Automatic annotation (TrEMBL):
It holds the Pfam family Hydrolase. It catalyses: beta-D-glucose 1-phosphate = beta-D-glucose 6-phosphate. This is Beta-phosphoglucomutase. InterPro entries: B-phosphoglucomutase_hydrolase, Beta-PGM, Beta-PGM-like, HAD-like_sf, HAD-SF_hydro_IA, HAD_sf, PGP-like_dom2. It comes from the Bacteria. CDD domains: HAD_BPGM. It is an enzyme of class 5 (isomerase). Keywords: Carbohydrate metabolism, Isomerase, Magnesium, Metal-binding, Phosphoprotein.
């Protein structure tokens, strides 16, 4: 039986995935190369330093650790310039209605706990900017984990803090690495995006606008038999 929903942040609750893409491209451009939207899919859900390593490898650039830290800090500053302009209006379509349905389900005798499962160190700031800090029963962010997605650590810690079993959780993810993390953690993986990209997901919807809590729980029941 499903008892908890674990939400990724960037690209699921807010559109910061686009900000990461813009800031990383700006950094790559400053080093004399560029990368595609398809390559960007491989960065989603991956920690800041691991993302930097992947981008530098793509560009064939080798740097000292000190220079890498400088570049990561520069990218983060460009990213924060965009984040600092955010308001509650930047919550993605369908999210607030979906969160209201979770609350309603609880009032109707089906309590569902919710946690954040993000590898971002900026997650608390972003939640604060869009006014979502208070809604979670547990928040696992980049400061609480040692392994980035696709390692399941972030979601397993979320389940543990909520005191539920992995198989009682649904993970909401827009990243290939995040879906893999959910599956490795033995959780139901709901993909937000395209089924052509999120091929390992148990179910994929274009956005939370296209799903109700009742439909989701029925789909999981059917899948789990
Ligand atoms: C993930 C994003 O949520 O957080 C990645 O999908 C990002 O693109 C990662 O690299 C780390 O984020 P931050 O905010 O700590 O640089
Ligand atoms: Mg994401």
């Amino acid at each position: 039986m499903i008892k908890a929903f674990l939400f990724d942040l960037d690209g699921v609750l807010v559109d910061t995935a686009v900000f990461h893409y813009q800031a990383w491209r700006r950094m790559a451009n400053s080093l004399g190369f560029d990368f595609t939207h398809e390559f960007n899919e491989t960065l989603k859900g991956v920690s800041r330093m691991d993302s930097l390593d992947r981008i530098l490898a793509l560009g064939g650039v080798t740097l000292t650790d000190e220079r890498k830290l400088e570049l990561a800090a520069q990218k983060n500053q460009w990213y924060l310039d965009l984040v600092n302009e955010m308001t509650p209006a930047d919550i993605l379509p369908g999210v607030n209605a979906f969160l209201a349905q979770i609350k309603q389900a609880g009032e109707q005798g089906q309590p569902i706990k919710i946690a954040l499962g993000s590898v971002s160190k900026n997650a608390p700031l972003i939640l604060d900017r869009v006014g979502l800090s208070h809604i979670f029963d547990a928040i696992i962010d980049g400061s609480k984990i040692t392994h980035s997605k696709p390692d399941p650590e972030v979601f397993l810690k979320g389940a543990a803090e909520l005191n539920v079993l992995p198989e009682e959780c649904i993970v909401f993810e827009d990243a290939v690495a995040g879906i893999e993390a959910a599956k490795r953690g033995n959780m139901f993986a709901l993909g937000i995006g395209s089924p052509d990209v999120l091929t390992q997901a148990d179910l994929v919807v274009p956005s939370l606008e296209h799903l109700t809590v009742t439909e989701l729980l029925s789909a999981v029941e059917r899948a789990q038999g």
